[in-house]
Amino acid sequence: MSDAVRIVEVGPRDGLQNEKTAVSVADRIAFIEALIGAGLNPIEVGAFVSPKAIPQMVGSAEVLRGVSGHTGTEFHVLVPNEKGYEASQAAGARAIAVFAAASEGFSRANINCTVAESIERFKPVLARAKAGGIKVRGYISCVLGCPYDGEIKPQAVVDVARTLFDLGCYEISLGDTIGVGTPAKARQLLRAVAGEVPMPKLAMHFHDTYGQALANLYAGMEEGCRVIDSAAGGLGGCPYAPGATGNVATEDVVYMLEGMGIRTGVDMAKLVAATNTISRLIGRPPLSRVASALNAKARNS
Ligand code: HMG
Ligand code: MG
Q: Is 83 in the pocket of ligand 1 (CB under 6 A)?
């Protein structure tokens, strides 16, 4: 398992969307610039969603414009509908992500429509993006369990993945939104989805609520998946996924990959510094085990 892995940093979006403390546009830009400095690319920086649904993402246009000078970095933003698409384009987005769910309960709670209706909303977004040369990623939430509907059959994920891929998403990110998955289930899911969408087009977006995310990623890598979503400091969660905690921490992913001989190009010291700064701003210590260990080591040396 030594071939390259692509890390998609989602901290400035998934990481901050669930925080009680609002982070200012200037501080979000500084966080993203620190992540760029640490070598992360691409980075998900915001969401063009209803300000009532996710007030933390208000100002995403200013954030995107604020980092646009970093032309070597690809910036992703979430878009739920045509209104969001138009706002993303006015702000200069070149890469967007639509987000569906494998379960009806989460779809209704998160984006106020059925899974089928969400696909209908995405169709014009994908058509306009294709015409405009904009890259579109497709997320599927609750792939290993739903806070409303419980267990999710792999076939439900396969169907949505196939649909999003056929509509033109260049990559399908499989979200264990509430972090309930275990390695055997993650493996089974990846196998099932890879039967319909080529493995190089799949990404793993695992939250770490039950402490299984790294093990699940390792199992997914053994299946051949090479794209990992993670958030600096283990930030993250979704207000519509009760009880869910952060994404797998980027520091922990980088530490594991480097330990496996897989070069990530990420500067760990700079990444931990970025995490420490954002953690101070939101007023709680990082969830990342590696960041905590390195911080303790620095204090004791
Ligand atoms: P709705 O209420 O059904 O939408 O919400 P609507 O079309 O009826 O519009 C209602 C209001 O929202 C209107 O404003 C619209 O203008 C406005 P009002 O007249 O009441 O003042 N509106 C918008 N405003 C800004 N940007 C927009 C937009 N669209 C409508 N794009 C909607 C439907 C999808 C808009 C709403 O439910 C929403 O924004 N949901 C977003 C939820 C969200 O962002 N969740 C977190 C991200 S997903 C996630 O974290 C999971 C992931 O990480 C993967 C994983 O872990 O599984 C990706
Ligand atoms: Mg997420």
A: yes
